[in-house]
Design goal:
Layout (H helix, E strand, L loop, with lengths): L2 E8 L2 H9 L4 E9 L9 H4 L7 E9 L5 H10 L8 E2 L2 E2 L5 E5 L2 H17 L10 E3 L3 E3 L7 H4 L12
Parallel strand pairs: 6-7
Antiparallel strand pairs: 1-3, 1-6, 2-3, 2-8, 4-5
Helix pairs in contact: 3-4
Length: 163
């Protein structure tokens, strides 16, 4: 097994986690906060204000022998609208931004390559606004957010697979 890690932000982490967890090769998902000012700010009560700099994100552990990082990034661009700045569906604010947090030069190059391909495909009517940025500390969200849609199948999500 070739375990690797990725951190992706694409709006409310509940729906992102639910779609990614179903992909062959995904070993584990954890929802949390990334990209913010401090660990002390990594609490939902603070993140939801949009003032902490954190994005709702999902940390994915995957088997790269089954699911390549490139295919994971391709899927990421299909499960949300990467052209809306700080918004997915009814969720508005910097905490719902789209972002790819990379861990090394190879992940960065791959993410940028796929982003360029998505932009060139013209599948989206507006420019892709997703930044590709270095991974920052990831803080696990509170327990009630973990596996939320598994525990609450009728819970809110604005995420779905797009072609």
């Amino acid at each position: 097994m070739n375990k690797q890690k990725a951190i992706l932000a694409a709006g409310c982490f509940w729906g992102v986690e639910e779609l990614l967890r179903e992909m062959p090769g995904v070993i584990d998902t954890q929802v949390g906060y990334c990209g913010g000012k401090s660990a002390e700010d990594a609490l939902y009560t603070k993140v939801k204000t949009g003032q902490t700099g954190h994005a709702e994100a999902v940390q994915i552990i995957f088997d790269a022998d089954v699911l390549s990082y490139e295919n994971l990034i391709r899927a990421f661009f299909k499960l949300h609208d990467p052209t809306t700045l700080n918004q997915q569906g009814n969720d508005i604010g910097t905490q719902y931004r789209s972002a790819i947090f990379y861990f090394d030069a190879e992940q960065k190059a791959t993410a940028e390559k796929v982003k360029v391909e998505v932009e060139a495909s013209k599948k989206w009517p507006r420019p892709v606004v997703t930044p590709v940025i270095p991974a920052e500390p990831f803080y696990d969200a509170e327990g009630y957010h973990q596996d939320y849609l598994q525990k609450n199948p009728d819970g809110y999500t604005c995420h779905y697979w797009r072609e």
